[in-house]
Each structure stands twice: as C-alpha cells, then as structure tokens.
C-alpha cells in the first residue's frame, strides 16, 4: 500500500464510520500533512483517490467536503403512468403531473422548470417516433426538483401534428384525468421501456449539480396507441445517487 493509499483508506474509514459525516469539511492539507507526516503532494494524491471515487467533492475555493446524501426516491415504473392512477391523482387535487403527485405523496416538495419548443429530435427519438428525416417534434423539457434540489431531467417528445394547439404546448405543469394525451383523444395503450446506465454529459452534470463519479440511468419510455402508432417518447435522466427504480412483472 502506497502512502497516498494509506491516507485514502484511513479517510474512507472515517467517512464510512460517520466520524466525517455527509457534508463535513475535510481537514485542510496542512492539517493532514501534520496528522500523517507526509508531503503536500502525497496528501493531495490520497484525497484525489476519494474524489475520483465520488466520496469527496470539491466546494467553492479549495475546500473538500464529504459527499452529501440525497434521500432516494423510489419509482414503480409499472404503475406510474397508469390512467387509473393518473385520474386518482388529478381528482385528489394533487398539483402537477404524476411525477409531482408521487413526490408529494412521499412528503417532498416538487417543482419543475419547463420549456417547450419545436425541434428536430435526437436520432434515437426520431426513430422511435417513426418521424422522417428532418421531421419535427414538440419537446417539453423539464428540470425536476425535490425540496429545491435537482433530481432528474425529463424530456418528452411528441409528433408536432398530434399536439399542436393543445395544452402540451404550454410551458407549465399540465394535467388531466387519465393524462393530457388521453384528454385530447390520444390514448396510450402500451409502453415500451429502454434503460441505459452511463456517465453523464457535461450538460447533465451542470443541470443536476452532479458530484464526480456519479452515473446516471437514461430511461426512455415510448407510448403507443392501440394501433401501434407512437404518440410520445420521454427520456428521463436519473442520477444514480438519488433514485431507485422498481418494476412489478407477472411471471406468467
């Protein structure tokens, strides 16, 4: 074990034991040099190991902090967008969409920043929506917060001709019993999900305030009507340190 690894191992043990709790400031380089009797470069190398692991993050200035923990949100993707559940949430006067109602039911305070635009969607979204090359979609892009902390990105894409002039064009929370699409005669009869786990892009890191070494799950859900026509494609970015996804699957 190198001297840097020795420092990293000791600090890791102190973090995992709670001696250095989430949000605690790490001792300064000068303090660590005195404590371990090693050079500044060796101390920096030891702390760098923990930064690369994601246990320690860099704050303003030169300070280093123990990574804070986010209360995990559990999503049951099997039932989240069911029409009956959506109708219950709206009738119960829970503000916002089903995401917001789920957060509120768990005791959190949901908030979304929403923008709406007409775009050429990303290639994989265009293909899922069966749009031609150069085809346009309405994009509802949302940054989702819980208790004013960024938790997820959710971008929904709709073929432009299906939703032009509907409430989905409005940059605000919109909801209706059974879902907004169903309220305008576009009933989603089936969903197809794809999940990829990867490291975040720079944009995602900035929007979600992600510490180093935080993977994300990219959840893509495409909704189809009874005839198999794609109505919507939603791409959700879920940081791995603040989400848990569950599914209920019939073994038959």
Q: Under the CATH scheme, which class of the largest domain?
A: Alpha Beta
Integer tally of domains: 2
DSSP helix fraction: 25-40%
Spatial ordering of strands, largest sheet: 4-5-6-9-8-7
Compute the gyration radius: what is it? 22 Å
- The H-level CATH homologous superfamily of the largest domain, spelled out, is Chorismate lyase-like
What structural category do the secondary elements indicate? alpha+beta
Kindly report the CATH topology of the largest domain.
Chorismate lyase
- Sequence stretches where pLDDT stays below 50 over 5 or more residues: 89-95
Strand content: 25-35%
> How many beta strands in the DSSP annotation?
10
Distance between the termini: 52 Å
Q: Globular, elongated, flat, extended or rod-shaped: what is the shape?
A: elongated
The total count of helices amounts to 9
Major sheet summary line = 6 strands, antiparallel
Jot down its keywords.
single chain; 252 residues; alpha+beta; Arc Repressor Mutant, subunit A; Chorismate lyase; 2 domains; six-stranded antiparallel sheet; two-stranded antiparallel ribbon; 9 helices; 10 strands
